[in-house]
Hints:
This protein is of the alpha+beta class. The chain has one domain (12-175, 188-273). It is 15% helix and 26% strand. The strands form two sheets. The protein has a five-stranded mixed barrel with strand order 5-6-9-14-13. It has a two-stranded antiparallel sheet with strand order 10-11. Strand 8 (152-155) and strand 9 (159-167) form a beta hairpin. Mean pLDDT is 82; it is low at 1-9, 14-19 and 179-194. Residues 174-195 are annotated as: Disordered.
Amino acid sequence: MSDTTTSPAPKLSSSALIPPKTPASVLNKLKTSSGGFYAETPRLAYCAEYFTGGRDGNILITKGLDYDEEFIIHGVFKISRNNFFFTPDGNFNPANVFHGHLADLELSCQLTAGHSKAFKFLSKDFPAVVNNLSAFKNLVPKERYYETVSVIQDTIGCGRSIKLSHHLFEANDEAQGGTSDEDDNGSTAVTHPDSLSSEFDIGTWPVANRCKGHLQDVTSKHNICPLPAYDQNHVLIPPLQYEVKLKGVLVEVHMAFYHHCMKKSRCDIFEAVL
Length: 274
């Protein structure tokens, strides 16, 4: 059975950088927006704490509120051309045992400082952004002899960068043991009032030939989660255009943070997630 997901909230967009908006207006929007915190804000870690979650890990939330609110950070970055895996199948290779299962696939890319004559604040603010994100790992008690996998990476060709991830699949009600609505004939009837076009359908999701059999194996128990990436007209970018529209460009990013404690492998993993 094929499913489509509803359109997610904008989290990755180049719309902030188009005329008539100026660099000053973009920076002002980043600093004053009520939908999160500007990534360069001094001592950002003092505003956050981790909420102990379940299988999705510990989620960074805003500190000092009477309710739990996901801690969202936003900024403008350049998506590196190197280590670019924001493709429809994330270059998944089922023959590589280290790639695991397709259902667990994470798309990823590297965010770097944008070097632009117009947007000079991008390179100026980037070191402070890196320091803020690095500080989030200090909010988790450090276990002795545990390895730390940070979102901050030093890679050849990128220099210092931020690894941004996106989970392509999510388990549906059937996989989670839930119930679904049935019509008079007893068949499952799922409706999505805000469903996307067929190019975002899990049944027609454009993966490489080596992945097609594995994709069929996950369609019945998973929904596809397209990248929440929007073009300059605020239109969700189709999967076949991910590379041409995102690779090497300046984007406005809204990201959340997660921590996973892997006791068996004695490892703390931190993620910046769309």
